[in-house]
Structures are given as C-alpha cells and as structure tokens.
C-alpha cells in the first residue's frame, strides 16, 4: 500500500537548520528557526521553569492519567492569565499540544460545528496555519495581509476579507507579534474587523503565541481580552515562546460560546475530538506553568526574565533601525514587534547571504531578529548593503 505515498515535500526551515549546522565558519549567523535566543545564541530554559521542574521531580507522586481537558489548574491558571479574569462560564477550555495542537482542536471543532466552514487567512502567515486547514479539510480563503516591499499592512484587503466572511466561517488573527512580518493591526483596525465578523456571524480565531515579547505582558494580551467579549470566539494560547516550553507541547484553547449551555456542549465535543488525537494531553509543561503562575516568587522571576527577553528584542530592533542608513530595507523595523521581520529578498540574494556572508535565513526572507548576537546587526546590515540587485 505504501507505494502510493508520494515523496515528502521538504520543510524549508529544516533545510536552513541543516545548512547552518553544516557551515564551518565561526562567525555564522542563524536567523532561521523562530525560537528566542539570548545574546550568546542559546535558547535557554527559563530560570522559573528550571525551579518549577526541580520541584515537580521531587514532589510528583503519580503519572496516572489526568482529565480529558488536561490539568484543571493549568486550564484555570493560564485561562485567567490570558483573559485577565477567571474563565467565564460561557467559555469552554482544553489543554492542547502547544499552539499547533490548540489550533488543530479549534479547526476540528469548527468543522464539526459547520462542515462548510472556511478559514480566512491573511498572507504571508505562519505556514502551519495553511497546513492545519488542509489537514482538517477546511477550505482556505486567503487575502493579502502585507506588502513586503512597502513594509505595510494591506488594510483594504484585510477589511474586504472580513466583509467576505459567511456565518460560521473562521477569520484568523495573530494575537500579536505577527509571524512573519512583525506588523500588527492596531486597536481600531481590530475593533472594526470584529464588528464586521459579528455582523456576519463569523468567528474570530486568535493565535496567541508571543505574549510578553511585544509591548509587555498586559499590553500584549489586551486584544485577547477584547475578543473574549465577542458572542463567539476561539483563542489559542501557546506556552512555547513565553515560557520557553517549545518541546514540552503546552497550550490552551479557549472557546467562547454564546451561553453557558452552549459552552458545555462545546466542552464535550472538544474532549471527544482530543480523545482521538492525543487521548490525554501531555502533563509536564502544564504542571510547570501551574507552579510558575501559582507561586508568587516564581511568577515574579518568570515575568522579570520575560521582560528581559522583550527588552533584548526591542534593543536589537533599535540597533537595526539605526543601521537603516547602511541598509535601507531595515527602515521601520523599530515600529514592528516580536522576533520577526520579512526582508524583500530574492532567492538568489538569500543564497548569496548564506554563501558569501554565512547569514542563514528562511527562504521567504523572514529573519528571526533574536538570532543576532553582539556585533551581528552591523554585519547583517553591511551584507544586505553589499547585495547585488535581484
Ligand atoms: N502560532 C504562531 C504564529 C507561531 O509562530 C507558532 C510557533 O512558531 C505557534 C503558533 C505555535 O507553536 P507551537 O505549536 O510550537 O506551540
């Protein structure tokens, strides 16, 4: 039977990772994979996570299954962090395997509720958004979110896309720190879009992956809190970046329903869906997050370290902005947020950066700013300035 399986489509970022690893030059720069890095290039375990893990190993007395919805304290704790108040009765919530697992649950739920559901997605986006729609069998309706050359959100196209939604469709928002452009809609854009979706009976699906790394934890979560007041909404909150728990696959899906009774049905369906995907969600990352959120000293440590991470990214953006006289394509980078920027580069230029300057980035031209170590920003600007025209 396997002879019918076609060759796999290689993952572009894994190719970049392999090329970076194979590059023998000591001054090589890795701007590829989207993980936070400190100024030594490491992606370390956060101190609060280390402390919580040590306690967990000492105190954990069972590995028996938890509930279908996951760790109750995690669901309540991360839900309250995200929404700023305890989860309301009209919200269903379930632990998912990272942001990806939460988005998969959200799409499966939407499909179960409305087999004709379409996902409206602005491009460019995180590639897994489209992959997840395909895996779930949900029709994708795309629009242009961003003009890379002009470094500008195409607000007209985004608005037209919202106006084109039907009742029961999903419209995807990046909660903050848009991946891959770093350019977020502002409050009035979002309020306008939510009003259109509400009018059409379409549902906002908010992907919250980079809280704490934009303008600060509270500011970064403001949009989620607005969305939670909508008649219906789906909110995925990943712990991969903000807690550095990438490989522990930790996240929460919140489904806001119109009523408490509707929320109870949604909760049941989410648990049924999750039962055949993972049966029970992984416990470790969730237990770590609970410890951090519940213990005030650990929570403070976590927030301080998260703020240091944010400050480093902010500083790098300022450094790159100051270099825009060397490389004009960096102009405006300090107005963007999070770890990404899309550079308007051709495949040949991206290959030249790797070949001639040991600077490795995604084939789309997306760079992870946190991949820059001390002195690298100037090297990047000089390399960009030295590129021949496409
Ligand atoms: N959403 C966006 C926009 C992302 O960039 C990421 C990670 O890169 C995720 C969600 C979730 O990642 P994970 O499944 O590792 O939590």
Q: What this model shows, in words?
A:
The termini are far apart. It contains 14 helices and 13 strands. The model has no long low-confidence stretch (mean pLDDT 96). The chain is α/β, with parallel strands linked by helices and 390 residues long. 44% of the residues lie in helices and 14% in strands. It folds into 2 domains: 2-46 and 297-386, Aspartate Aminotransferase, domain 1 (Alpha-Beta Complex), CATH 3.90.1150.10; 65-294, Type I PLP-dependent aspartate aminotransferase-like (Major domain) (Aspartate Aminotransferase, domain 2). A 7-stranded mixed beta sheet has the order 2-10-9-8-7-3-4, with helices on both faces. A two-stranded parallel sheet has the order 1-12. The structure holds pyridoxal-5'-phosphate (PLP). Residues 34, 98-100, 126, 174, 179, 207, 209, 238, 240, 246, 251 line the site of pyridoxal-5'-phosphate (PLP). Homodimer. InterPro entries: Aminotransferase_I/II_large, Asp_trans, PyrdxlP-dep_Trfase, PyrdxlP-dep_Trfase_major, PyrdxlP-dep_Trfase_small. This is Aromatic-amino-acid transaminase. GO terms for molecular function: identical protein binding; L-aspartate:2-oxoglutarate aminotransferase activity; L-tyrosine-2-oxoglutarate transaminase activity; pyridoxal phosphate binding. Residues 27-384 form the Aminotransferase class I/classII large domain.
Question: What's a quick, concise take on this entry?
Answer:
Helices cover 44% and strands 14% of the residues.
């Amino acid at each position: 039977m396997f002879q019918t399986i076609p060759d796999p489509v290689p993952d572009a970022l894994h190719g970049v990772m392999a090329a970076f690893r194979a590059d023998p030059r000591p001054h090589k720069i890795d701007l590829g994979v989207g993980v936070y890095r400190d100024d030594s290039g490491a992606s370390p375990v956060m101190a609060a996570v280390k402390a919580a893990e040590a306690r967990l190993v000492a105190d954990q007395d069972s590995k028996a299954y938890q509930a279908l919805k996951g760790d109750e304290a995690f669901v309540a704790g991360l839900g309250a962090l995200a929404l700023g108040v305890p989860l309301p009765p009209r919200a269903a919530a379930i632990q998912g395997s990272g942001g990806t697992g939460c988005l998969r649950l959200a799409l499966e739920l939407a499909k179960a509720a409305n087999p004709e559901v379409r996902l409206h997605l602005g491009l460019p986006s995180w590639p897994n958004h489209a992959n997840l729609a395909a895996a779930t069998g949900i029709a994708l309706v795309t629009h242009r979110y961003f003009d890379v050359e002009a470094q500008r959100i195409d607000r007209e196209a985004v608005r037209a896309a919202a106006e084109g939604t039907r009742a029961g469709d999903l419209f995807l928002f990046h909660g903050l720190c848009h991946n891959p452009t770093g350019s977020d809609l502002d409050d009035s854009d979002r309020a306008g879009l939510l009003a259109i979706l509400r009018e059409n009976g379409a549902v906002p699906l908010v992907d919250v992956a980079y809280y704490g790394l934009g303008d600060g934890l509270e500011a970064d979560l403001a949009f989620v809190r607005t969305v939670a007041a909508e008649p219906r909404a789906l909110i995925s909150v990943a712990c991969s970046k903000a807690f550095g728990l990438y490989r522990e696959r930790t996240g929460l899906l919140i489904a806001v329903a119109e009523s408490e009774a509707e929320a109870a049905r949604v909760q049941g369906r989410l648990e049924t869906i999750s039962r055949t995907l993972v049966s029970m969600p992984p416990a470790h990352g969730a237990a770590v997050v609970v410890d951090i959120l519940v213990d005030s000293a650990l929570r403070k440590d976590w927030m301080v370290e998260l703020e240091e991470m944010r400050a480093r990214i902010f500083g790098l953006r300022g450094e790159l902005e100051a270099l825009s006289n060397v490389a004009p394509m960096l102009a405006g980078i300090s107005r963007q947020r999070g770890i990404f920027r899309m550079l308007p580069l051709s495949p040949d230029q991206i290959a030249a950066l790797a070949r001639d300057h040991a600077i490795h980035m995604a084939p789309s031209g997306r760079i992870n700013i946190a991949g820059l170590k001390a002195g690298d920003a100037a090297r990047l600007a000089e390399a960009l300035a030295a590129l021949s025209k496409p």
